[in-house]
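#dry-run=false #mode=assembly
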Amino acid sequence: MVNWTAEEKQIISAIWAKINIEEVGAAALTRLLVVYPWTQRYFSNFGNLSSPTAIEGNPRVKTHGKKVLTSFGEAVKNLDNVKATFDKLSQLHSDKLHVDPQNFKLLGDNLIIVLAATLGKDFTSEAQAAWQKLVGVVAAALSRNYH
Amino acid sequence: MSLTKSDKTIIASIWSKIATQADCIGTEALERLFTSYPQTKTYFPHFDLHHGSAQLHAHGAKVVSAIGDAVKNIDNIKSALAKLSELHAYILRVDPVNFKLLSHCLLVTVAAHFPADFTAEAQAAWDKFLTIVSSVLTEKYR
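#status=ok
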């Protein structure tokens, strides 16, 4: 079980409440695909990903970004039980999607950059630390059922 | 991995923004590093690492200034950072994994300060650039 301080939990919830899931999710996924173009291999059926502009405007990227971040929200709501929360999703990513777990780390770090861009000064060092811990916990939970 | 012409233009443009608050950006990047990754403090037992510390500020300024040198000599980063490369290899011996952590914290800091300018493309260019800087600094390790 993960040890969260009361402060960490409070920071995580407060930031989650402030953000637009659709926008932040789309932005994080966009950045993943632009900054690490090899990740596009998982989205060959998404249509036009031929340039940063194309990726930014791609409606499937937006929809999928929202889906991914909404799912992330389950971790936020179940901080004391992240592993169980992502049990099925972990299997899915391993058995069906065949996603290299390294990508969970890349997406997590990109989410943090988007949070910084969105919240500016409010994304303090402490806020970043709490969220780095969270993205690490989510990445571990998603990797857990790989075999 | 090498920098395209477009990368170099973006890198210079973002640098011109960073330069307006260079010391602050460097200091904040270090603070973020130490807060999110406390193990990195092991390289600074001799420092006061509290927020507002003069040592932290001086070191932050130093780090960003070196990055500025790399920007200004973008076609020959190896030569511009030769002394720093030796310093990190033979004296400091900072474990290579930490360059990724500091690079990430620097990108977070830049994103927080210049969200409109730090587009996905800008992030891509700076991520490449900092990866190159990191490999120059660890080049002589073995």
